[in-house]
Amino acid sequence: MGLMSEVAKRHNFRVLLHEKPFSGINGSGKHNNWSLGTDTGTLLFAPGKTPRENLRFMGRINGLEGKALEERIDRLLERVGMAQAADKKTGTYSRGMRQRLGIADVLMKDPDIIIMDEPTLGIDPEGVRELMWLIRDLAERDGRTILLSSHQLYQVQRVCDRMGIFVKGKMVACGTLEELGQQIGRDGTGALELSVY
Question: What's the pTM value of the predicted model, to 2 decimals?
Fold first, then answer.
């Protein structure tokens, strides 16, 4: 989000969260009473360390220590389906496993809003199903807001309550799948042709 704030300053646009201007995050990751977590798909974990060690590092950065930290690590590894592989080196993980670790890493901060960029990129079909179930569960069971960026419309429509379609950086339609059809027909374009794989 800090990057979004910098881009906004340099390119003359505003970032809004819950229809309020967003100007940055303090060191704790908090801003305007919302906490944010991002999973950009850039999976940067120490390959010679275990997921537990990687999460411990992130927890300490976020002010967690001792028993509370260890309990959170155990809960998160269980939550993302990695408890059995928690003590293997991260460098041996598939992309799907690293992506799940990325979600655990984001959850270490306990954010209200999670921003995910192409979370299923390079993951096998079974891994995609599991990851999409986890994303939906984070929204439904935890009550978190998930902002998901993806070119995979089929996957997005399976887990999202609302979708936005961007063309050349401009949102041209937003809503449920049914509402999208109504918006597109109303604005005079007549049809929206999308490829779904």
Answer: 0.69
